[in-house]
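Collaborator request, handled under Task 6.
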Amino acid sequence: MAKFLKTEFIKVATSGHTIDGREIPESDIQDMADNYDPKEYTAVINYEHLRYFGNFGTVAEVKTERDSKDRLCLFAKLIPGDDLLYLNRQGQKLFSSIEIQPNFAQTGKAYLAGLAVTDTPASLGTDLLQFNTKTDNTMLLEACEIGTLDIQEERSRFYTFFKSKTPSPKPLPKTEPVLHSTTPPQHDSSESNSMDKKQFEQLNGNFEKLTLLVSQRLPNVESDGDNTNTPTDEPSGAISVDAFNGLKTDIETMQESVTALTKTVNDALADTSNNTKTGDDAGDNENPEVI
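C-alpha cells returned to the collaborator:
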C-alpha cells in the first residue's frame, strides 16, 4: 500500500432511489456515519465487489452531509493502495459502490462493510475518483515520491497485474459415460445390493448363451476345420442357407438380450441417482447489500 496517502472526503453514496429502482434509506446512511470505526471493523476497498483480486485500500473515516437537493449523502476518506492508484491512472474504475451490512453484529444498525471501485455505480451522485496532487478535493498527499511515467512500463504492468490475478482454468474431472433411461422406474434403495448381483448373473447368463450359440454355428463357417457339416457341392468355407438363417436368428436373440441388459443397467443407474442426496450449504448468512 502507498505510504501516507489519504484522500479528502469523497461522496460514495446518496440516500433515496438508485438507478435500478432500489432505495438507500437515510437511516442507513446515518447509521454508517455514526457507527463506522475502523478499529472495530475496517471497510476494505475491492475490485467490483470481488475479493479474489485482493484489497485495493481501506476506508479511513466517514461522515454525512446534505446536498443541494436536500438528500443525505455519505462521504468517505479513502486510503488507496498501489493497484488502485495504477488503475485510476489508466482511467479505470472511476466510481465507488458501497456494501451495506444490515443489523451489523446484531446491533440492529447498518454498517459500511466494504467499498468497491467500479465504472457502474448504482447510487446517484457519487464523486469521480481522481487520485492526483493537483486537485484540492481528491488527494491529500503527506509523503510521496513521484517519478517519471514510462508508458511502456505502465502498459506492461497493467497486463501483468490482471494476468497474475486471473485464475487458471481448472481441468474438467474425468467421468465415465452414463446411460440414461427416459422413464426410470422407482426401486427400493434397500434392494440396491441384490440388484447388482442380479445384473451380474443376468450379464453372465447372456454371455454364456451367446458363447453357446456361436459355438453351435462354428462348424458351419470354419473353412480350415472339420467340414463334415458342409455340403460337398458348396465351395470350401461357404455358409448354407440354413446356417445363415440360424445365425441370423441367433444374432436377433443376442440383440434382444443386450437390449434387456441395457434396460436393466439403466434402471439401476437411475435408481442410484434418485437415491443420492446432496447436502445444503452450511448456514444462511446475511450478505451485505451491494449498492
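The cover message to the collaborator said: "The chain is about 35% helix and 20% strand. The longest strand covers residues 57-66. Please let us know whether this matches your experimental observations."
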